[in-house]
Amino acid sequence: MKRDFLLSTFSSNSILDILIIGGGINGSGIAADASSRGLRTGLFDSFDFGAATSSCSSKLIHGGLRYLEQFEFKLVAHSLKEREILLKKAPHIVSEMRFILPHRPFLRSAWIIRLGLFLYDHLARRTILKPSYKVKLNNEGHFKKNLKTGFEYSDCWVDDARLVLLNAMDAKENGAEVRNYCQIVKAKRFKNMWVVTIKNRLTQEVFERKTKVLINAGGPWAQTIIEDNLNLTSSHQIRLIKGSHIVIPKINNINKAYILQSDDKRIIFAIPYLEKFTMIGTTDIEYDGDPRFVTISDKEKTYLLNIINEHFVKQIELKDIIWSFSGVRPLVNEKQESAQKISRDYILELNLDDSMAPLLSIFGGKITTFRQLSESVVDKISQFFTDIKPCVTKETVLPGGDFAYPVETLIFQIQTKYPWLNESVIERYAHQYGMYTYKLLKNCSKIQDMGIEFFDGLYQIEIDYLISNEFAKTEEDILWRRTKLGLEIPQEKIKSIKDYIELKLMNSPLA
């Protein structure tokens, strides 16, 4: 039954229907869903959108093959279904990737793997992704001689940081208030509403927002937000699990990923990354500390390298590591379980009584099922609003994704319109911005119109676009999340980029 104090839509511009704390993949996804259903929505993050866990994933939209061993068939089925939805929603940043699983008989028998892949192929309807099959490995010359056969199947690669950004952009285009670097200082219930105090960490401005429903999508900080910022008691305990990755020069010229079994029966991925590199991960380590400052340990580096070297002829050393990154997965605490056995499913907790405004908190979850989680969250709070529209996120595309042909065709079309622009830059634009590449280049008819070239392929016009349209505030926002140029740009070039951004922000009311 709908409750009287929330029966009408917002009555003034100062009152939001929902305010979301946390701009990771779940928070941005909820903002996109809620705003598309007509709810007046606010999205706030203390740092940049996706700056923590959501940009430190294995960059995969996957069903979770290993979850079948834990009998999480529902989670796998939902994840498999979401793969094809996201392929259609964001074809510029999500793409099919073939995975090779070398068979190691002493770890898992062939029939167990075949059964798992059969379920993987059939637990959800599959119209785009190709099925699995058995392959011979010794013909390639990349694997050690004891690895003769394997299995190949499909999952999807995703630019995780841009997936977060596109959802935040989608919410803003739907009319939401979307602000990064804005910290929730405190929130209190007052006369059937939440009064939320917010501090802009860049300008030090402190302001308030009132909202009918408060959404806690704080990820690793969800429990802290409840206990410290809201002064309430959390009914769920968060268990922090560190996952680390390393990046090395490309291990071979095959554009496929590998799923490798270790002696402890865990699996790691070796995934093609930005054409020149291979990304390897992840680990599962208990973590007790501030999620903002998580880093890889030497033990984790050695662990990942050892698994790679057990499989491939080409041996990798510590000195070959070009870059590493770590993230903290916020999982619902199951004290009896090891880190790798804790469920990756999510829990939604609604906190309310007859006289108080609702609080909905999200615990757990994974990037693959963020859209489904977002739909479930808005469905759960829909009881507090009249005339809320149905969910449309299965059918609608994310910004830049409104093309129904392969991304290679889009690249060709952009090249035809802008023949003076370097082919590698066009290819990067197409995969990052999709159809919004035309928005980025709308005032350009020659290379001089691109402005200053700060680094090979990074022009002034792109930085301006990212500040005006994608909430970029720092050089890190641009070099590591909006683009991935931070992996290659020399340190001495970064200062000029930083100085330009600061000057631009000082003079730009849009920023």
TrEMBL record:
<keyword id="KW-0274">FAD</keyword>
<dbReference type="InterPro" id="IPR000447">
    <property type="entry name" value="G3P_DH_FAD-dep"/>
</dbReference>
<dbReference type="Pfam" id="PF16901">
    <property type="entry name" value="DAO_C"/>
</dbReference>
<dbReference type="InterPro" id="IPR038299">
    <property type="entry name" value="DAO_C_sf"/>
</dbReference>
<keyword id="KW-0285">Flavoprotein</keyword>
<dbReference type="InterPro" id="IPR036188">
    <property type="entry name" value="FAD/NAD-bd_sf"/>
</dbReference>
<comment type="similarity">
    <text>Belongs to the FAD-dependent glycerol-3-phosphate dehydrogenase family.</text>
</comment>
<dbReference type="GO" id="GO:0004368">
    <property type="term" value="F:glycerol-3-phosphate dehydrogenase (quinone) activity"/>
</dbReference>
<feature type="domain" description="FAD dependent oxidoreductase">
    <location>
        <begin position="17"/>
        <end position="334"/>
    </location>
</feature>
<dbReference type="InterPro" id="IPR031656">
    <property type="entry name" value="DAO_C"/>
</dbReference>
<dbReference type="InterPro" id="IPR006076">
    <property type="entry name" value="FAD-dep_OxRdtase"/>
</dbReference>
<protein>
    <recommendedName>
        <fullName>Glycerol-3-phosphate dehydrogenase</fullName>
        <ecNumber>1.1.5.3</ecNumber>
    </recommendedName>
</protein>
<dbReference type="Pfam" id="PF01266">
    <property type="entry name" value="DAO"/>
</dbReference>
<feature type="domain" description="Alpha-glycerophosphate oxidase C-terminal">
    <location>
        <begin position="391"/>
        <end position="500"/>
    </location>
</feature>
<dbReference type="GO" id="GO:0046168">
    <property type="term" value="P:glycerol-3-phosphate catabolic process"/>
</dbReference>
<dbReference type="GO" id="GO:0009331">
    <property type="term" value="C:glycerol-3-phosphate dehydrogenase (FAD) complex"/>
</dbReference>
<keyword id="KW-0560">Oxidoreductase</keyword>
